[in-house]
Amino acid sequence: MGVEKASGLVFGDYSSSFDDLRWYVDAANAYNLGSVFDMEFDIDSKGRHFKCLFFAFEACIHGFKYCRPVLMLDGTFLKGRHKGCLLAATAKDGNQGILTLERDIAFVTDRHGGLLKALAETNLKTYLSVKSRESKEYLLTLFSRCAYAPTIELFNELFEEFKGRCGRSVERFLEDLPNECRCNAYFQGKRYGEMCTNAAESFNSWIRDEHHLFSTSLVDAIWMKLMEQFSRRREVGNKWNRIVCPFAEKKLEEAFNDTKAWIVKKCSDDIYEIQLDHSVMVDIGKRCCSCRLWEIDSFPCKHGFCAIKRSEKDLNCFLDDYYRVSSYCDSYSHSIYPVPSMWKPNVVVDDDVVLPPLCKRPAGRPRTERIPSKGEIKRIRCSRCGKMGTHNRKTCKHALL
User: Fold this and answer.
1) 191-208: per-residue pLDDT in tens?
2) SS3 of residue 77 by DSSP
3) What backbone torsions phi and psi does residue 76 show, to the nearest 5 degrees?
4) β-strands 70-80, 106-108: how paired?
5) Cys-Cys with 72: which of 115, 199, 265, 301 at CB 3.0–4.6 Å?
């Protein structure tokens, strides 16, 4: 409530907040050159009514050049008089934080209608013919394994098992989902390890307390949170005395611990064979592996890590620049500047007033919890065993010590 009271003193009541938003956009452009703001209106006999606003801060536009080229898209509901929604496009910096020209960008969405409406016909759970919760969860896990399978051969093997355990309705549902949009094995670009919209959902959760604010106060509150976040991460990055970000270092450390016993055979300066229960070929010159994970994630897979280690070449040379501390610092090098409200005019010209939206607030009480993504399994902490999972005290089967 503290944010609402502070903002309300500056930006007035519900109706006037839309006209304040027009002033705010102009002032924000003046204090943050290079930002993009685009307001749209509906026109009727009473005048101009607010329709929607798009905004992208200059610091974010600049910072995205140094982030992995993946955007997670998600929407969240608002709690104002006309409800409405807030759509967010979220990127990740080289240290997995939520955040170039002429580069391919992968877009990740949850496939909700309008990114927000959880229609039953777009949810895989409703197509599963099995009744027990455990069976549904197993099938959803199996479907997830299909989606993450890096090769077509592994995907086909897992998918045949999945189809054999599901009804015909599931097959019809999947016919409308192109393989290249939902499966690693068929994806032609680079996903950088991103298969879901968790980052965008984290952003929406981050601003959950602001969902009830009036229009201008909402934009201003998001502005302030991002301004402080950029400042904090800029300070953190400047203190790192390393080449790659901690996230990348941790992944490499895990690969080192998991591959100590693997056998590596050298074929040429670039090509190596990794011998496990099966053999895998790695070409460190082309940054590729027969498991395909290196190409998909644009990060050395464990087989690639083994080959690089055997080659005695500098491992950092095989990491994309996005994972370097220098790129992390560049992501947050520009600042987001506040908009001083002391210059806001008190008088508004009647002919130029921006009125509230034309749409009416839907009937019923507004939702207080977010709509889950397609196929998402909600994890809870069991009060009996204390473990995270999909069971509760009543259905818990864990043995207590």
Assistant:
1) 787 777 777 778 878 888
2) strand
3) -140, 145
4) parallel
5) 199
Give how far Cα 278 sits from Cα of 134, 291, 309, Å: 32, 11, 20
What is the 3-state secondary structure of 204-253?
A: HHHCHHHCCCCHHHHHHHHHHHHHHHHHHHHHHHHHCCCCECHHHHHHHH
Q: Give domain limits for the chain.
A: 1-111+194-241+335-361, 245-318
Are 66 and 322 in contact, with CB atoms under 8 Å apart? Answer: yes
Q: Give Cβ neighbours of residue 75 (< 8 Å, ≥ 6 apart).
A: 85, 86, 87, 88, 112, 114, 115, 116, 204
The tokens for 390 are: 């999909």
Pairwise CA distance, residues 22 & 173, whole Å: 44
Helix (H) or strand (E) holding 51: strand 47-56
- Pairing mode of beta strands 380-381, 354-355: unpaired
d(CA 155, CA 302) in angstroms, rounded, equals 20
Strand 70-80 and strand 83-90: the pairing is antiparallel
**Does the reported pTM lie above 0.70?**
yes
pLDDT tens, residue by residue, 67-117? 988 888 888 788 766 678 888 888 888 887 777 445 777 777 765 444 333
Neighbour tally for 85: CB within 10 Å: 15
- What's the rounded Cα separation, in Å, for the pair 373 and 112? 8
